[in-house]
Amino acid sequence: MFSEIFPDPTMMFRFKIDVQRLQNEVIDFSDIDHWGLNNTHRMPPIAQLGTQQLPIDAKLAWNEQGLFLQIDMEVSDGYPVELSQRSHSVELMVNTRYNRKILRENAFCASFSFFRTPFFRRTRYVDPKSGAHRMLAHVKSPRPHQDQTEDPNQAAIIGWARARDSGLTSWVRISPQAMHEFRPDEFPDIGLYFRSTISHFDDPTASRKPHQESSMVHHQKISDRDIPSLYTHCRLIEPAPNKEPRS
Predict the structure, then answer these.
(1) What average pLDDT does this structure show over 219-236?
(2) How many domains does the chain have?
(3) Cα–Cα distances in Å, from 244 out to 40, 125, 247?
(4) Contact criterion met (CB below 8 Å) for 56 and 73
(5) C-alpha dihedral over 35, 90, 74, 125, to 10 degrees?
(6) Buried b (16+ CB within 10 A) or exposed e, 179-213
(7) Is residue 67 pLDDT above 60, yes or no?
(8) Are 135 and 157 in contact (CB under 8 A)?
(9) What is the pLDDT of residues 106-145, one digit of tens each?
(10) What is the pLDDT of residues 23-62, one digit of tens each?
(11) Among 90, 123, 202, 247, which is most buried by a count of CB atoms within 10 Å?
(12) Is residue 47 part of a domain?
């Protein structure tokens, strides 16, 4: 039973977007500049909630190799955009069988987190080709564990982060093996939620500065429980014919 403060989630407004297939096969998952995400994969801008949240410019694509997400986030806290002074995280939740009537996590739901900080040795690795920092990758559910695979092309999940002039870009790939029965040809409707956060530290012993956070806000928590039916409804589609991808 839901109170007046938390109405029945089946009656709430939802977002639905089309997600186009990634037309190329990714050969090297460490070569983020050649993953192939472009403007045809851009997610529609959605207003952010909360005073500390910033707009996200996100691209999402899929193919037989899984889901690919790129997040561009502006930084405006007055500190230099340097990963040597930044901690950054991305959280992502996927439901491979989107159903607006499902009010609790089930076997088709999985959640992942990616994290890097300059004070962890394992997040100091920088790819020599792209200059991106590799993030620690964790499967939070259904079976919590950390993916410690060193070879990016063998990892079930992988995340990268790279600073730019005015912000930070992160890349995430979730393999089909990391999701339960990811079969887009048969079940093209999935649920998705992600959140990206950035924090600044003066030094390892300093208190954390108020972090900047940006997210797809159409994920909502009711009584502190994740409601998969409130994830964004994503339909995995083929590219429109006779249209060249825009760069």
Answers:
(1) 66
(2) 1
(3) 9, 36, 9
(4) yes
(5) -70
(6) bbebebeeebbbbbbbbbbbbbbeeeeeeeeeebb
(7) yes
(8) no
(9) 889 999 999 987 776 665 688 888 989 899 999 988 888 8
(10) 999 999 999 999 999 999 998 865 444 444 555 788 999 9
(11) 90
(12) no
